[in-house]
Amino acid sequence: MFAFVVALALSAPVALAEEEAMKNLTTVTWAHAVNNKTYLEAALASELSMLEADVVLGHITGKDGPPIPIMAHPPATTSDLSLGDFLTGVAQYNNVNAKQKGVKLDFKSIEAFEKAQDIIAPFSKPEVTFPLWLNADILPGPIKATTKPVDAEKFIQLASKHPRAVLSIGWTTNYGGNITEGEYSREQIGSMLRLVNEHNVNQTVTFPVRAGLASNSQPVLLDLVRETSSLNSSITVWSSEGDNVEVDRLRALILTMGLEKTYLDVPHELAAKLHLPPPTNTKN
Predict the structure, then answer these.
(1) Which of 23, 104, 137, 208 is 20–30 Å from 145 (CA)?
(2) What's the longest Cα–Cα distance across the chain?
């Protein structure tokens, strides 16, 4: 009986906090490149909400055999952490902690996603409740990006086998350094909408967009989210260190889109300049 009362006492404020986060997605916090055991342990011990990690085909350090999905960012092809061990570690943490950690798996090739299907399956079952995002850059984007996108049709088809997962689909980008201006074109937005419609996507979708480009793209991004509203769609604004970002325009985009429709994954310095409404204090 005592354990049950304690569980209720723990779960009530956690549930309220999660409800508040859904009203203001910009308060969700991120760990990046959780691609080895040390980073995974640190991220699980932190207060961060979501663990973003990269998935490639490669080998566990010191082991031979066929390539398997591992946690690493190209061009690396070795790691001390496999995708299976990463997901198991997060699940084990969530089994004994009231405040759940979510994961965003960033697949760098369609081959990695194909070989990950059986590994992901146990964690995408309805009874598993922690957030699971499946991410890839599936279309070429601004500004004349040359990075090869992940095969769009195959990615969407395979992701549909995991209906509880959030489908996070975006564009490759060429921005930063000497490139300080640009935007998402109406054609690029239209290509994404056609993919979503032609493949009858019916799971929650978020569209990752680069802050410096998104800040100049408010009309088309509003159209994108409006046209996909039946999928509980959102945008995830991200930025690399040093990207040129028009802060006032980005703030206007976020507030116009709505805090309940905008995840924010940008460097702390940029986030502070946005002066967004703070999280609501949850009373116990």
Answers:
(1) 104
(2) 63
User: Among residues of the chain, what percentage have pLDDT more than 90?
Assistant: 89
Residue 128, pLDDT above cutoff 70: yes
First to last CA, the chain: 21
Is a pLDDT exceeding 90 seen at residue 8?
A: no
Task: Fill in the amino acid letter for 22.
Answer: M
- Side-chain-side CA neighbours of 191 within 13 Å: the count stands at 14
Q: What is the pLDDT of residue 279?
A: 74
The answer to whether residues 171 and 142 touch, using CB atoms and an 8 Å cutoff, is yes
Q: What is the mean predicted confidence (pLDDT) over 89-93?
A: 98
The phi and psi torsions of 73 (rounded to 5 degrees) equal -110, 135
pLDDT average, residue stretch 118-130: 97
Tokens of 119: 């590994």
215: Cβ contacts below 8 Å, ≥ 6 apart: 245, 246, 247, 249, 250, 253
Helical axes 37-45 vs 83-95, angle rounded to 10°: 20
